[in-house]
Each structure stands twice: as C-alpha cells, then as structure tokens.
Write a structure and sequence with these properties.
With 386 residues, the protein is α/β, with parallel strands linked by helices. The chain contains 16 helices and eleven strands. The strands form two sheets. Strands 1-2-6-5-4-3-7-8-9 form a nine-stranded mixed sheet, sandwiched between helices.
Length: 386
C-alpha cells in the first residue's frame, strides 16, 4: 500500500496471496485475473473444491498456506521496516510489468523513497556471473557508472559478482540503482551484501515479490529474473556461463521484446561462453555505455562513430594543435617564431603555449619554448605525452 488509509479487500487479498502463491505462478495469476484477488482468497478461505488447474494435493497445500497467512501483520511489519506494498493499478506500479501476463507479480514490496514507476521508465538491467573475473567486475561497474551519468537507472539482482559491481558503479557515480531481491526486502540476501543493499535502499530502491521475512530459494532466484527483464528497457549480460541465471534474464527480455545486449569476453573464457552464445543469436554486442544508450535510448542518442582510439592530442582545440605543431622537434623557439609558423598572433600563441604546458606538452626555457622529452616522440606519432 503506497499511500495512506485502510487497505481494501483486493489489496489485502494480494498481500495474503504473496504468502500463498509462488512468484510467476501463471495458474494462480489466471485465477486472480478472472476472480480478483479477493475472490481467490474467499475460495481459499471457504476450503471448497479446487480451482481449475490445481490438483487435490496442490490445493490442499494452498489451503494450508492461506490459513497461516496474516496480511494485516505483514503490512504492519512492512511499515515498521520502511517498506510499502505496491499492487497493479497503483500510481507507482510500473505498467511494463503487465507484459508478463498471468506471470505478473501480485504486487511488489518496495523499500526506498523514489517512485518505482518513474525510475523504471528509464532503466537498464546489468546482470552476469556471481563468480565473475576482474574484467567482468570492471566492465559492469564502468557500464553502470556511465549509465548513471547519462541519467539511466541501473537495475540488477543484488548478488555477488557482476550484480554487486553494477550497483556499486551506479552508486559511486552518484546515480540511481534498483536491487530486485528473491526474498523479503527487509532481510538482505546475500548476507555479505547487507551494507550494500542498505546503501541502495538509502540512495535508490530495493524491491521484491516476497513478503517481509521470506527467504530465497533456487527457483525464486530464477523467477525473480523475469521481473528484472520486464521492468527495464534492455538487459546487458556482462559475463555468463552456459547455464547462468543471467541468461534466463536475457531470454526473458527477448521474449518480452526488450533489447538484449552482451559484453564480449576472451574466446577462451568459460565465464563468457554464455554471452557469446547470446551474441550468436539476436543479442547486440556492446562494449561501452554509448553502445547501450544508442540501443535503449530515445531517437538521436547515437553512439559516436568508431574511428580508432581517441588520443590525448585529438582532444586539443584546433588552435592549440596548430601551435603545438609549430614547435621544432629539437631545440627552443621564441614565441614570435612559433606564432609566425602557426599563423597566429604572438599573444594568442603565448596563451596556447601556457595551455600546452599545463597538459605536459611543452616547457619554457628562458624566453623560448620547447617540447617536453615525453612529447617529442608522441608529437611525431600522434600520441599524447606519457
């Protein structure tokens, strides 16, 4: 319940059902769509015949869960932990999650101040291996920091490895990040990321489908990934083995019509083998934030042309490059000589020389100027000093 006031039967029903149905349960989702959450709860409370699609054994299990559920207590525990419940139809509900159909979450438990709906409108998932390499962690953090600096929200799963690196990259850039957990958002998992998830809750959002205090299971991790895929405009996989859970996220993104991207790794790396499989399919190869933004961004957000590496000398203004080119390869030249050779005024040449000195290209000798030792070779072959 994102606003104040007393919860209605439909909202209480959805909160109760988060204790009864597992995330992504399409049969249960169909019941909710056809009968409403309140209607499903009444059938469970009455203990009548099983709803369509449930075996007698499964129905008995659902009845037992429903009897033990205490939605009012869950909502109070959530409020005490600074957590709100956001159901479909709420002003904070991200409409793109409706693309999941009957596998749509019953609602999301949200920890953090920002509006989930607003943040999700411009978000990208960055996921990958838990046991990632230094390269994988570096790429995830660099991409996330760049996305954050471009105004994008970075979404990941809060896990060790690539997920953690992505969250830290966004936080380090002062940007926005969302962790989607496979457990109650009041009990951070993994335990080793308690401090990180606390930081995310302060600076961003921590969300999940499971009610307060609930624990993760292997299947919940896999099912959580569909939320990451649906919530965002695209998914970037940094490192993944052939059986990585992050490939589940990427394939869910493909099914939902979202952009799917992969960061290539060494051909010999098993940790990149799953990414390379994606890239052999319909995923787009990305190597930096400009590639990602060009795919997921609005019209006009294009990556720069690839013309080889940008060298320090290329970043100089044309007038400064002209003055730099006017210095002799050896020896000292006076400002008036440099100005004549650069076809500019002496005062302008002197101003450019001081700029070049600050950048390490030139040094002053008495009344003259000369290239620094580090710059002599670099001017000849086009590199910057050092």
């Amino acid at each position: 319940m994102s606003g104040g006031g007393e919860p209605d039967d439909e909202l209480l029903g959805r909160v109760l059902l988060t204790r009864v149905l597992e995330p992504g349960d399409e049969v249960g989702g169909r019941w909710v769509r056809e009968l409403g959450a309140g209607g499903v709860v009444r059938r469970l409370r009455e203990g009548g015949p099983a709803l369509p699609g449930a075996s007698a054994k499964r129905w008995a299990g659902l009845l037992a869960r429903a009897e033990a559920a205490r939605p009012g207590r869950d909502l109070q525990a959530a409020r005490d932990a600074g957590v709100r419940f956001v159901p479909p139809g709420d002003t904070e509900w991200p409409g793109q999650l409706d693309d999941l159909g009957d596998a749509r979450p019953l609602g999301l438990w949200v920890r953090g101040r920002p509006s989930l709906r607003m943040w999700a409108l411009k978000s990208v998932a960055v996921v990958g291996a838990r046991a990632c390499t230094e390269y994988g962690a570096h790429m995830a953090a660099t991409l996330a920091a760049g996305l954050a600096e471009h105004g994008w929200v970075v979404v990941s799963g809060g896990a060790y490895g690539v997920d953690g690196a992505a969250h830290r990259g966004a936080l380090g850039a002062g940007g926005a990040t969302v962790a989607v957990l496979a457990c109650g958002v009041d009990r951070p998992y993994p335990r080793g990321h308690t401090q990180l998830i606390g930081r995310i809750a302060e600076q961003g959002l921590v969300i999940g489908e499971l009610p307060p205090g609930d624990h993760p299971t292997p299947s919940r991790f896999i099912l959580r990934n569909r939320v990451i895929a649906a919530l965002t405009r695209g998914t970037v996989v940094v490192e993944a083995t052939h059986r990585s859970g992050s490939l589940v996220t990427a394939r869910a993104a493909q099914r939902l019509g979202r952009h799917t991207m992969g960061v290539p790794g060494p051909a010999t790396s098993g940790l990149s083998a799953g990414v390379h499989d994606l890239l052999r399919g319909e995923a787009a190869l990305v190597t930096d934030v400009a590639d990602v933004v060009e795919l997921v961004g609005d019209i006009g957000e294009l990556a720069p042309d690839r013309r080889g590496p940008v060298l320090p000398r290329d970043l100089l203004e044309p007038a400064a490059r002209q003055v730099l080119a006017a210095l002799p390869g050896r020896g000292v030249a006076r400002p008036d000589e440099i100005a004549r050779s650069a076809q500019t005024a002496p005062d302008d040449a002197i101003a450019r020389l001081y700029e070049l000195r600050a950048l390490g290209y030139v040094e002053r000798h008495g009344d003259g100027w000369k290239l620094t030792r580090q710059a002599v070779m670099s001017v000849r072959d086009g590199r910057g000093p050092g």
